[in-house]
């Protein structure tokens, strides 16, 4: 008899993806300015640590909020006993108002259509349970957040079918890519239940254009399917073009069937930098989805003291205004620092306007245009340069050589050090290594518009995601 269930032992969780393996490498040898200055710098974690001081000064000025108190009197017992899965009304009201503020108050949200969840992770999985059966499919544009393999597929049995987007148009979603994905799913006998997008995108750091949003709404209308827009990074948009939420575009669809088939996922993990607090939400116009998701939210509620704290924080409009503005300014500065640091190393990245990361083009540093070569480069960057960045293959990118590099989870000094290490690596590898194509060669080939060979995702061997035994040996000798 097998001791554990198939679900517990299957590997669709994605734990062995290089995205998560990179975190392990970092944890074995974490950089610390004083205690471990030669350690690995974590650039594979989309955390926002830039505005903690603003949150901390609000907490100092509002001690009741975190101290289980209202008007100076303890509400400890009230909070300790509260267990209604509909959530604290004050928290839901404050959260929908915050979501509207991020959208320039061009849309309003009804708190009765909001379901609180333990982060976006729980929100996305709950929506899968509500909208699809095991074996049915959702279409996702590539590259996508590696955690989706776990969040959408693992426990629900729902399949992800990629919508292949490429660098030829800045990884934009096109009608032909949508149709190709849909037909691809049909060929595999998969019933398509919807499309899921992240807006702004993780890992691209770009916002969806109005024409992409219209395209998506036309597509789900034609195919009679759902659209989930994960807008977890909506408050991180730091430069133009601004953020347009699908809810804004949906205003033109009131009284149509599509109105009920668009759902938003949100969380405070990125915009407020609070992933540890586990505050997420589903917003849907469909009463049945709201009712089902509310029942399911029993498995991932937000604790009542967190809801209490958040309702006080988010209903302070002076705070939210100041925070959103200042946080976006800081993200903009950091983004600029990273882009300029990369430029000094003659590395470019996709033009972006949001998020906590850049989508970096390291194709010039590949030996060959393959995912094996991407893995080889990734290992060099992790082991030799000692930076943990996320390879595009872990985000299901169809073109080898792209990497997601995070910039908001470290100090300025650490980011500068990371850029110095990278620059040295690029200089050394392009001058010393005869196997490496030089950057000049790359750029001249690029300018002469040589067609690049884009390997099909389905042809990428499994080993690309795992460490070979040789690497494991190397890793254990590296461990402190
Ligand atoms: C697009 C996207 N969705 C969901 C999540 C999960 O967020 P949470 O911490 O709110 O569960 C992340 C985290 O990185 C993300 O990037």
UniProtKB/TrEMBL annotation:
Keywords of the record: Ethylene biosynthesis, Fruit ripening, Lyase, Pyridoxal phosphate, S-adenosyl-L-methionine
**Known pathway:** Alkene biosynthesis; ethylene biosynthesis via S-adenosyl-L-methionine; ethylene from S-adenosyl-L-methionine: step 1/2
What catalytic reaction does the record list?
S-adenosyl-L-methionine = 1-aminocyclopropane-1-carboxylate + S-methyl-5'-thioadenosine + H(+)
The organism's place on the tree of life at top rank: Eukaryota
Please list the cofactors this protein needs: pyridoxal 5'-phosphate
Q: Which GO terms describe its biological process?
A: ethylene biosynthetic process; fruit ripening
For the Aminotransferase class I/classII large domain, which residue ranges apply?
Answer: 41-422
List membrane-spanning regions: none
Its Enzyme Commission number(s) read 4.4.1.14
Q: Which InterPro entries match?
A: Aminotransferase_I/II_large, Ethylene_sulfur-biosynth, NHTrfase_class1_PyrdxlP-BS
Q: GO molecular function: any one? A: pyridoxal phosphate binding
- Indicate the quaternary assembly: Homodimer.
Family according to the record: Belongs to the class-I pyridoxal-phosphate-dependent aminotransferase family.
The protein depicted here goes by the name 1-aminocyclopropane-1-carboxylate synthase
Q: Which organism is it from?
A: Carya illinoinensis
